[in-house]
């Protein structure tokens, strides 16, 4: 009655399931295109990488995991998350692992449980379920595997069939790990992504970030004009190092042009820590337009990630810092907010702007209609909380009828959890297969079309949208 | 495994599909009620209508088609869309058709692909798929059919079993085509709809529109009072010409009463091109209430279409004009916005107010609760981007539990693409059948109820909501 | 083909249905936990309760029923709803019942129709459908049953297997009915809930409410300080009377701390009927934080019900008063609005804050991410318009992947219609079984997990979330 493992995430209906199997078979072994994510390049630049313990690998870096445990009253200290003040945290990783397994039932029905189940099984060969009873056995098995050469990041890269992996890097990064990779005799394609948030979004420490920008660009950034020049220089450097894309995060999708005079004035205030919140909002909105202009000129694909209210829990921020699972989505607006940018570049064939968002209501109402009209616009795949079986189905349900699939950017895993990469792509490929299968059995598309579309969704669209064909 | 054509848009589950077939069989051949749409009355007033080429018929007037092609970088000039400045556009319709077919894969999964597939097959007898290879063969077949008397608009009207077709007409129209129709010996029921947007929504050219209003009404419109009198005169004229409804488009559902003094002041400013955006917003909000008041008095059903941000792409507007596929939805609000109007007329049995919107979130949150309470309010069918298989399912899913189906206005096709009318109604009838079938097989309604409901959805509700029984 | 009664609300797919049956079998006979609702305690405090007629039981108190009839032009007077001015209303309950049955088709597809069908069948043994023809026969059967001792509220309480039932009571209530219950020799567990809206939300009559508060608390409430003391006293009293929870309704989820000085100033203005709407909004936002603080101290679970724009129809309010089916949801926001409260108490293990809302878009975007992070926060079940088969499915679909089920509060029926309680729980148990069954057959969870989860959803989560284990 219950699903076999091979058919997971496929509908129970026999016709749909059979069709989903057929479609999935065509893509399950295709190489992985990973054009956006947060894998640490040191994993791959290191000849020999030390994974640490299973907890170092799977728990401490994964805010999906510890946010849920936190929500049920488990302290981050007890999960070994390092405190900013260096205060005491649990050091016994076996004990942490036991705590996680004791509470693993919390993850029932979540994508985290699917990814980890697949990782354990497919990568580490562990078939057991994470339970209190199994905790130490699983820990042992994992710890043992992590020592083996076959589990070194580069070996996994090959085993995962990653065709290209993009990291995300600060605009001020010297990309030293990427340089090491280029200098090495290993030939996996790992490329940087230009992420200038820290030098574009005005917040405490901005002046220090600009100082860093001066330093790495070797351009004395003293005003708005030299600031732009330095950014252009960094983009050039990133391109030389293989980047094909930029990435920008903002709370809202607001765009709006400032006069050169206004931009200069806000920049100067920001350098003296005197910019207001409204200054910051307007500056970011202006710089998104400037970044689009630079993309038109240098060809870097532009990504924007909109709608996360970061660091919602001030106590956690104070004790542990950023990215601690306390980022909460907010309602977003694109129709009015993106208009100033689109007025300038929306129909420019040189711009490719990929939009990610955390407000699902904008898909059918704003983003699919926008992407179904403007040549420059593409919809990014479902992001973060929506990178899930049901999230993907809703994404297809609310975008394809208006925008088709050819105004989307395929899939990207957006993960910092390196071993979860194959599992995440597999969920996408399975859900895509199942969604197309339903379209076929309901007579909306025919099999011939579905056969094309599944390869587009699983592989081609990402490659093409991020200009990775080269 | 895949769906047969006869079962399209029905669930794959055998029980549900069987029930859907049974329900659909009861309505598939019922006459079509077309109470709202944008068919050009000249098609039907002309004794002999010249369709032009297949591109004139299917591409140039259809913004659903060219918006998608535009989104992938195809210039509207290359699709033969006429420029406002008379600049060069592609004149070779065979070449245009080839371009469309070369890119037809873009429409996979969209309602446009379903409609056109059905039109080719059911109206023109063309079973082939639109592909690069088939393009010229299909063009030939279409061109040949369009010359035949059987494909004349009046013959199609009869073949489609259209019981009544409402056009949409400017308040200043003299309805000359409708007069021709009344004077002809052809007896298809074609009626006008009173659409006063151009004389109600203050925008550039308003004074000229009011001059036209004076002219056609033979009332010297010099102030707010004569303006209302002229509008009442036009409504009377439209009613005499068979109209049963009005139609109003607005960006927001804002309603709010102005004092006579304020209304006069704004009107006068507007006549001198001196009205502000806020003036315009308040005037439209006031006039929606005035129009409701007039509907209470003269019995015309009132339609409002809310939420489209028109002409989002200024470059396209400048080159090609309005309705070029660059209209983008925005978030809408009804609970507060409609309250002033509903306070006055929401429980008046003489008012019938049908609401259309482009923000699906308002269905479960605002519109179904409002329609499930106020006697005057009815939900229009899913509009524009949501006139689709999945759009309709979401509409039923989010409205029926709160409002039932008897506070809805059934279906209307809202199309300017005359030959797509049967296909659009067929999608609705099929999706309705399938949705009710699911309700039956899940034990929510019984077959007896479903048998009533399917006829209501496919035929009776539209006829009754638009007072077309006469 | 159609569903048998035993399988209602289960998917038609045979695998999913079989699994749903298996899961449902484990919970269908579990006791009912009713931690939030509006049952009149007099039903149960009375040794012998007089139900009145079938119309007194099923129509006059049920705004779900009469709102729909009103929406189709039936006057509330004709349904026997009492007018505030004592004006004439229909007194012939047989005639009212006939009117209801004549229009029962309006409820096709609504939860009201499901609940009433189940009530008639399971409680009163009436298998007939409510139709014009059957109206009087059903009336006779109901009237006859209502006279029987077996249909007395206390006997139904036992027959329904209610383990605990919470009523909702004004902060100024002396809980006399609850005292009677405690003094009686009947041992059903009926507990009060502290609902201080009338003494917290500033509106006309506030001073009178505060006077009442002084009277029942025996604390002379003359300023903000004594006001807080009196509220604390009432909470203590409610706890002594068995309460485990409070409940708060507000249009928005706005929270924000006032200085003691500001709170005092607004309080004094309110006492003199001089508070503005903005005063009221800020005072409610402040008091929600104060109430959270008190919950931290006294352990009462805190419920908030957000988003209903009450009494939308002024004419109905004037003629019939509140709760007349004219409450309309509005868009809600939680990420920013709850932050001030969560900054203070969101991670406090002593607080349990259960959130209900009427804007489904907030589930995936705000509430599930918030509940999946903050220890204090739990999601209430789908409320009001969404306490329905499809509403529950959407709730699971949009919350579980992010928050899991262990950050939810299980089910509560929230009803004033006492005999509908079992039907409402049964819908939840069936839809939960079916939803989990789908997760199993699609390979997302395994059967072992589903077996735990169904009991959690049907029984344990509500008991634990409302601290009813004692």
TrEMBL record, chains A, B, C:
Any one GO molecular function term: glucuronate isomerase activity
**Matching InterPro entries:** Metal_Hydrolase, Uronate_isomerase
Q: Name the PANTHER family for this protein.
A: URONATE ISOMERASE
Task: Tell me its family.
Answer: Belongs to the metallo-dependent hydrolases superfamily. Uronate isomerase family.
Q: Which pathway does it operate in?
A: Carbohydrate metabolism; pentose and glucuronate interconversion
Membrane spanning stretches: none
**Which protein, by its recorded name, is this?**
Uronate isomerase
Reactions accelerated catalytically: D-glucuronate = D-fructuronate
Which Gene Ontology BP annotations are present? D-galacturonate catabolic process; D-glucuronate catabolic process
Q: What class of enzyme is it?
A: isomerase
């Amino acid at each position: 009655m219950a699903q076999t493992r091979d058919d997971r995430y496929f509908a129970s209906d026999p016709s749909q399931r059979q069709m989903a199997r057929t479609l999935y078979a065509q893509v399950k072994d295709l190489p992985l295109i990973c054009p956006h994510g947060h894998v640490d390049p040191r994993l791959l630049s290191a000849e020999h990488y030390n994974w640490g313990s299973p907890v170092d690998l799977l728990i401490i870096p994964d805010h999906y995991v510890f946010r849920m445990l936190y929500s049920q009253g488990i302290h981050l200290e007890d999960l070994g998350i390092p405190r900013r003040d260096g205060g005491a945290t649990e050091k016994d990783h076996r004990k942490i692992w036991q705590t996680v397994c004791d509470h693993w039932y919390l993850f029932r029905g979540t994508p985290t449980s699917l990814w980890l189940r697949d990782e354990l099984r497919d990568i580490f060969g562990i078939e057991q379920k994470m339970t209190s009873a199994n905790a130490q056995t699983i820990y042992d098995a994992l710890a043992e595997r992590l020592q083996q050469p076959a589990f070194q990041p580069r070996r996994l890269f090959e085993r995962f069939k990653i065709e290209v992996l993009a990291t995300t890097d600060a605009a001020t990064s010297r990309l030293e790990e990427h340089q090491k990779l280029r200098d090495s005799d290993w030939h996996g394609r790992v490329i940087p992504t230009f992420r200038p948030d820290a030098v574009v979004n005005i917040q405490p420490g901005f002046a220090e970030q600009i100082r860093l920008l001066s330093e790495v660009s070797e351009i004395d950034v003293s005003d708005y004009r030299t600031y732009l020049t330095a950014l252009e220089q960094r983009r050039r450097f990133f391109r030389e190092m293989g980047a094909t894309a930029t990435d920008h995060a903002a709370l809202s999708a607001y765009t709006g042009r400032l006069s050169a005079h206004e931009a200069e004035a806000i920049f100067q205030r920001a350098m003296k820590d005197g910019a207001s919140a409204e200054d910051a909002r307007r500056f970011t909105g202006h710089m998104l337009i400037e970044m689009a202009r630079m993309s038109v000129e240098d060809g870097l694909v532009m990504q924007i990630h909109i709608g996360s209210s970061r660091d919602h829990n001030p106590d956690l921020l104070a004790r542990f810092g950023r990215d601690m699972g306390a980022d909460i989505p907010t309602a977003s607006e694109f129709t009015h907010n993106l208009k100033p940018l689109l007025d300038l570049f929306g129909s420019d064939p040189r711009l490719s702007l990929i939009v990610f968002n955390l407000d699902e209501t904008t898909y059918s109402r704003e983003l699919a209609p926008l992407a179904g009209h403007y040549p420059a616009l593409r919809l990014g795949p479902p992001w973060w909380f929506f990178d899930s079986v049901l999230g993907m189905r809703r994404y297809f349900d609310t975008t394809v009828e208006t925008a088709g699939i050819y105004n989307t950017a395929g899939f990207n895993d957006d993960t910092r959890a390196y071993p979860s990469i194959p599992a995440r792509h597999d969920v996408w490929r399975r859900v895509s297969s199942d969604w197309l299968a339903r379209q076929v059995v309901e007579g909306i598309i025919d099999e011939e079309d579905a056969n094309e579309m599944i390869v587009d969704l699983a592989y081609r669209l990402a490659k093409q949208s991020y200009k990775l064909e080269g």
